[in-house]
Amino acid sequence: MGVDGPHWFSLGAILLLTLAGFHGLFFYRNLMGRSLSWGLFQAGIILLLLALAGLNPLAQAMAWTALAVLAGVLLALFTLCRVLFHKYETLEDEELQDEVGG
Q: Which residue in 38, 52, 53, 100 has a CA-CA distance of 20 to 30 Å to 89?
């Protein structure tokens, strides 16, 4: 087919990250699990951007900017999870809904 082995491996890793993250968004009931799966999904998208960017400096800059934003959002989500866990002693979505919603 004209595609070398390492290229197939990188595309497989991208597909694995995005599918695992997308699966976790819908099937985890824990807030930390959903946050980490969202991070995996975004990491797969960023790796796809980097793979498609090639040597284009603008596309690479956009991918690295997206990676920096991802790191910041994941740090904020981790901090939120820690605060919620210390306040309510759970990160399960139904238990949090009962605690916060009354």
A: 38
